[in-house]
Automatic annotation (TrEMBL):
This is Uncharacterized protein. The chain crosses the membrane at residues 12-34, 41-64. Keywords: Membrane, Transmembrane, Transmembrane helix. It comes from marine sediment metagenome. The keyword Transmembrane helix applies. The lineage of its organism: unclassified sequences, metagenomes, ecological metagenomes.
């Protein structure tokens, strides 16, 4: 894999921005699920966090190695 430091910094910055945006939406969605389904908010946030970490790993692999 060819790694360009500048590109990595740009991708990390974009990713952090996306994660902040995504987490805001996830929190709102989780709150609605909690209100209507009475699902535990902690469980929902944990699952959402897991999904975000998985997405992050996939994105880093794609950006660095492709």
């Amino acid at each position: 894999c060819f790694i360009d430091i500048l590109h990595i910094y740009i991708y990390i910055y974009i990713y952090i921005y996306l994660v902040v945006e995504i987490h805001m939406y996830i929190f709102v969605i989780c709150r609605y699920i909690y209100i209507y389904v009475k699902l535990d908010l902690g469980v929902c946030m944990y699952v959402c966090m897991y999904v975000c970490v998985y997405m992050y790993l996939c994105m880093m692999y794609v950006y660095i190695c492709v």
